[in-house]
Amino acid sequence: MTGNMISVETSGASGQMGAYMATPDGEGAPGLVIIQEVFGVNDFIRATVEAYAAKSFVTAAPDIFWRLEPGVQLNPNKEEEFNRGIELMGQFDQPTGIDDIQATITTLRNHPACNGKVGVLGFCLGGRLAYMAALGTDADVAVSYYGVGIETMLDQAGNIKIPTLLHIAEDDGFVPPEAQAAIKDGLTADNFDVHIYPGVDHGFARFTGMHYDEAAANLANERSLALLNSAL
């Protein structure tokens, strides 16, 4: 199921943001915002959009780096492009990114094929932003894959009321054991579900990446789909 680029109207006078979107056949489908890693709306993110559209979600991935450099598509397996992604992350304004994610949520809610409910699902930087979106947007459900720095925002967890699922890689150098323990201990309310996947590294669900682990990715994806279907 192929997608296409659409234009999302953002808040304020900042203009139009691109988003890669794919829609299922028919109407009454839930919406899902896919939030990129630091590598832009690349082949992995576009394939993820198409996969969820094939599972009957109105799906879109906003180009959240558009204010810095529109149309970023980086290959994390190439050192120069990996480093460029890290550089862009350092320049990226996360609160403004949350505004852009909200604009994408609103666009999907208003789409004629959508039933009005919209979730967010993100990887790496996008996993962090999915947690922030659970706090700062009107999303109905949030899914985070190996989100970075979530342990620094646990004091706000009580403000999250929507179902929120976190997938954590046990061997993630960006989320060390003490951070994993803090997340596990800090997110114990009924609306949180935290899973730590043993023996896998950051990026284990990116099928184009060197740390891809098919078994862990399939299990995480099954859990994600089950929650999205129940919540949306």
Short description:
The protein is an alpha/beta fold and 232 residues long.
Please tell me the overall pLDDT. 96
CATH superfamily: Alpha/Beta hydrolase fold, catalytic domain
Number of helices: 6
Shape: globular
Order of helices and strands: EEEHEHHEHEEHEH
Percent of residues in helices: 25-40%
Contiguous runs where pLDDT drops below 50 for at least 5 residues: none
Rg on CA atoms, Å: 16 Å
Describe, in plain words, how this protein is organized in 3D.
This protein is of the alpha/beta class and 232 residues long. It has one domain (4-231): Alpha/Beta hydrolase fold, catalytic domain (Rossmann fold), CATH 3.40.50.1820. Helix content is 35%, strand content 22%. It contains six helices and eight strands. The protein has helices at residues 43-54, 79-91, 94-109, 125-136, 177-186, 214-231; strands spanning 4-9, 16-22, 29-35, 58-62, 114-123, 141-145, 164-169, 192-197. An eight-stranded mixed beta sheet has the order 1-2-4-3-5-6-7-8, with helices on both faces. Helix 4 (125-136) links the parallel strand 5 and strand 6. Helix 3 packs across helix 4. The model has no long low-confidence stretch (mean pLDDT 96). It holds the Pfam family DLH. This is Sensor protein ChvG.
